[in-house]
Design a protein that fits this description.
single chain, 115 residues, alpha+beta, 4-stranded mixed β-sheet, globular
Length: 115
Amino acid sequence: MGLLQVEQIREILQDVLSEHAVVVQVNQFRNQLNIVLNKPPGTVAHYSALVNLLKSRLGQFHLDDIARIKIIGRIQGSPKPDWEEVIDLRPATPPLLLLCMPPRLLGWWRSPPGL
């Protein structure tokens, strides 16, 4: 994902949240997309509702090289987050041992015969 796509994502998400008092920042670090929602001091932000709005729009982007999305809510100018949520886009990989075992042994491993 290039800088242009990151900026496009930021612009669209800022537009989605235009009715809310937050400023959106987006950046990518390796395979993680970070979305920071900055709210003015003294305002209330319902982060879970904002995340649902973001999730409804994130599906329109090609995020093939992104494994997780981290959404952070904070007071504007503060280095510490008020709130955060991580969305894993890739399923957990099974243990290597299970990948190497023949299928006939997997059934025995899960439940011993006769049970």
